[in-house]
Amino acid sequence: MIQNEKLLTIGQFAAMHGINKKTLMWYDEIGLFRPAAVNPENGYRCYSYRQSAVLETILLLRELDVSVSEIQDFMKNRSAASLKILLEEKITALDQSIEHLRSLRKTLCSYHEHMETLLTMDLSQIRIVEKEERALVTVEITGETSFEKEVEMITAETKKCQLRRLHDASYGTMLPAESIYGGHFEDHTRLFIEIPDPGASVFTEESAEPRPRESAFHIQPAGRYIQAFHKGPWKEIPRKYREILDFAEAQNLTLYGFSYEMGINENVIERMEDYITQIEIPVS
Fold this sequence. Notes:
By secondary structure, this protein is of the alpha+beta class. It has 2 domains: about 5-80, Multidrug-efflux Transporter Regulator, Chain: A, Domain 2 (Orthogonal Bundle); about 125-280, Alpha-Beta Barrel (Multidrug-efflux Transporter 1 Regulator Bmrr, Chain A), CATH 3.20.80. It is built from 9 helices and 13 strands. It has helices at about 10-15, 20-30, 50-65, 70-75, 80-120, 145-160, 175-180, 215, 235-250; strands at about 5-10, 35-40, 45-50, 125-130, 135-140, 170-175, 190-195, 200-205, 210, 215-220, 225-230, 260-265, 275-280. The strands form 3 sheets. An 8-stranded antiparallel beta sheet has the order 4-11-13-12-6-7-5-10. The longest helix has about 40 residues, at about 80-120. The N and C termini lie far apart (about 70 Å). It comes from Schaedlerella arabinosiphila. Pfam families: GyrI-like (PF06445), MerR_1 (PF13411). This is MerR family transcriptional regulator. Keywords: DNA-binding.
C-alpha cells in the first residue's frame, strides 16, 4: 500500500485513475482539482494518494454527465448533505436513461423480428400462432375521425406515455371481431400503442402525478391467434379478411375480441403497393 505521505507524479496519479494526465492539468487550470504540491524547481505537479477519493468523485460525476460548473459549485461547498442531494438527482436521471435504453432495445428487437418475418416467412399463408399477453394504450376512433385527428390523438398518447418519438413503440389499429363477421372490414374503433416498458408510470395531461399503468391499458390476451399478412394499400384489406374468415371456418375456429393490424415494413419501402400489414386475431 502506498503511504499517505508519499507524493506521486502527475503521470503516476493519472495512470492510477485511468485518465490522461492532460485531464489533471486542465482540472488544475480551472481550479477544480489542485495538486497536493508543485515542485518549485521544475513546476511539476505532485499528488497525494489521499486525494484519490476526491478525484474519483469528480470522475464519477463527469461520467454521469454532471457539468464542470456543477461540480465546481459542489466542490466549493462539499458536504455529505450536498453530495447526497446531487447523487439523488443523478440516480433519478440514470434510472430514466436505463428505462429508455430498455425500451429502445425492445423496439429494435421488434424491428428485427419484422425484418426476419419479411425475409423468411411465406406471407401469403394464413397460420395459427401463440402470443403472449401484452398491454396497449388505446384511443377510440370512429369512421368520422379524420386522419389529422388520429395523428393528433396518437401523438398526444405518445407524449403522455413518455415516449420520445412515436416510433419508440409499436402502433396500429384495432377492428372488432363482430365487424369482421358483419363484413365491415374498415370499421376500426381504436388506435393502439404498445409501450415497450409497461412497468413504469403513465402521466396524465392534467397532473404530473403518475397513474397506475393497469388503468390505462387495454390487455391483448395471450393465446392462439390467426396471423395473416396483406400486401398493398389498406383499401384492399377486405380481401384478406375474407380469406381469414374462410380459413377460420375450415379450421372450426371462432374469432373474438379485436383484430390487431400493424404495418411491419414501412421503414424499408417507398411505394404503398409494397406496404405489408400484419393482421392478428385471437381465436377459440
